[in-house]
Each structure stands twice: as structure tokens, then as C-alpha cells.
Amino acid sequence: MPSVGVLPVHGPGPPEARSLSEGCVSITFMSHLLVEGQQPVVPLPEREPAAIRSAVARLNPAALAKFEADWTAATARARDEYSLLPARYFVEHWFSWVAVERWPQLAARLHACERIVAESQDRAERRAAAAEISQILRQAESATA
Fold first, then answer.
1. Dihedral of alpha carbons 23, 117, 39, 30, sign
2. Which of 29, 78, 100, 133 could serve as 15's disulfide partner, Cβ 3.0–4.6 Å?
3. Quick one: which H or E segment has residue 119?
4. Dihedral of CA 143/90/109/55: which sign?
């Protein structure tokens, strides 16, 4: 059973190139996913819906339907509640999505960890994956500064 902070991954090669079915990788390898000299797929957009929408369209056109549905729901909720918080939450959520998805290796690892959290029967493995998700989000956020 893996310890907390270690995800099961088998096989040769650098950790960032391994898939879930390959060996044990410490969550500390995450700092290597954003390698110096690598460039993101798209530049980081401004924190406003139109710019974020444009980045979403370039990164994953299939995600646009979800983006639009979330935007419609956020604006309706903001109107109903007389609050800007739903729109702010929407912008922060999708800005974070773009911040991760613009780095393909980081996005792939995030999705792998999400699968572990959703599907693994091993509590320690789920906890390690959840911790890694948190680290990925922090790393993507720090790459935006």
C-alpha cells in the first residue's frame, strides 16, 4: 500500500512521462512538470469572461458548452441574489481551469489524479491524489503570477 504523498505509477522514464499504470511517484515530482524553457499552449488570459472564453475555445472547444452553461447559471444566480459572488466564482474557477489546461503535462496529471480520487478503493491513494491535485492547482496559480 503506498504511503501518503506517493501515487502508484510503474515503469521506466521520468515521472512526468509516466501514466497511472506505471510505478510509485512522490507528489514532489510536480515541480518538474513545468520545466524551464517550456511554454504554455496559450498565454494566460485576463481575469475576465471574454478573455477566458477565448482561451477555453483554443484549449478545448468541447469545453465551451460547459463554460457557456456555467456563465449563464452564474449570471442568473448573481441577478437573483443581487451579488457579484457567483460571477467572481465563475471567473476564478475557469481562470484556474485555463491556468492548468494550458500546460498539457500538468493537465494530464491533474486528470489522472481526479480519476484516482473518483475510482480508487485505497484511501491512502485517494488522499495522496487529492494532495497532488492541490499541489497542481497551486503550481498552476503560481505560474500565473
1. negative
2. 29
3. helix 104-119
4. negative
Q: Which three cell numbers stand for residue 48?
A: 475576465
Three-class secondary structure of residue 37 per DSSP: coil
d(CA 29, CA 24) in angstroms, rounded, equals 11
Span of 28-37, 59-68, 107-116, 136-145 with lowest mean pLDDT: 28-37
- Answer yes or no: are the C-beta atoms of 98 and 41 closer than 8 Å: no
Please, are residues 90 and 52 in contact by the beta-carbon 8 Å criterion? no
Q: For residues 114-137, give the mean pLDDT.
A: 97
Helix (H), strand (E) at residue 24? strand 23-26
Question: How confident is the model over 31-57, as pLDDT tens digits?
Answer: 445 555 678 999 999 999 999 999 999
Cα separation, 74 vs 68, whole angstroms:
10
Contact present, 61 and 116 (Cβ < 8 Å): no
CA–CA distance from 116 to each of 9, 58, 66, 103, 110 (Å)?
12, 27, 23, 20, 10
Residue with cell 452564474: 74
> Cell numbers 475555445 label which residue?
57
